[in-house]
Amino acid sequence: MKKIEAIIKPFKLDEVKEALNELGVSGMTLCEVKGFGRQKGHTEIYRGAEYQVDFVPKIKLTIVADDSMVEKITSAIIENAGSGKIGDGKIFILPMDNAIRIRTGEKGNEAL
Fold first, then answer.
1. 15 vs 34, 59, 66, 74, 79, CA distance in Å?
2. Structural domain span for residue 93
3. What pTM value is reported for the model?
4. 88: domain CATH number?
5. Which helix (H) or strand (E) holds 23?
6. Is residue 54 helix, strand or coil?
7. For 102, phi and psi rounded to 5 degrees?
8. Residue 44's pLDDT band (boundaries 50, 70, 90)?
9. Are 35 and 56 contacting, i.e. CB atoms less than 8 angstroms apart?
């Protein structure tokens, strides 16, 4: 099992979610986050005044999946979240030792 964390632009969420549903991804967790990477934020104008936005709003998706699905999931995220412009986001893939469904006590892939 692997834990996939994807940081994407908020307006790309619906496209990514739809693509993951088509793959049969049975669950995901979503968080609204703020941060910056190489772009170091951006400048905006509000009521005629220019100001610096240091932390850019993003969406963090967390998905735990069987090893066999990782490549399909990451490809779907890249295809549907990418615009080719700076700030598209990142995907992190981490090893997952175990998962346990609280209600039934199922463990491993059965808990997913």
1. 20, 13, 22, 14, 10
2. 2-111
3. 0.85
4. 3.30.70.120
5. helix 13-23
6. coil
7. -60, -45
8. low
9. yes
pLDDT tens-digit series, residues 46-68: 777 776 777 889 999 999 999 99
Cβ neighbors of 46 (< 8 A, separation 6 or more) are none
Name the amino acid, one letter, at 106.
Answer: E
| Tokens coding 19 | 């693509």
Rounded Cα gap, residues 71 and 39, in angstroms: 27
List CB contacts of 92: < 8 A, sequence separation 6 or more: 4, 5, 6
- In 3D space, the residue among 2, 1, 8 whose CA is nearest the CA of residue 78 turns out to be 8
For residue 55 the two structure tokens come to: 């932390």
Give how many domains the chain has, as a whole number: 1
DSSP string of 49-93, one letter each residue: EEEEE-SEEEEEEEEEE-GGGHHHHHHHHHHHH--SSTT-EEEEE
Q: How many CB atoms lie within 10 A of CB 48?
A: 5
Q: Two tokens at 92?
A: 């992190």
- For residue 3, give the amino acid letter: K
Q: Which tokens hold the place of 18?
A: 């739809």
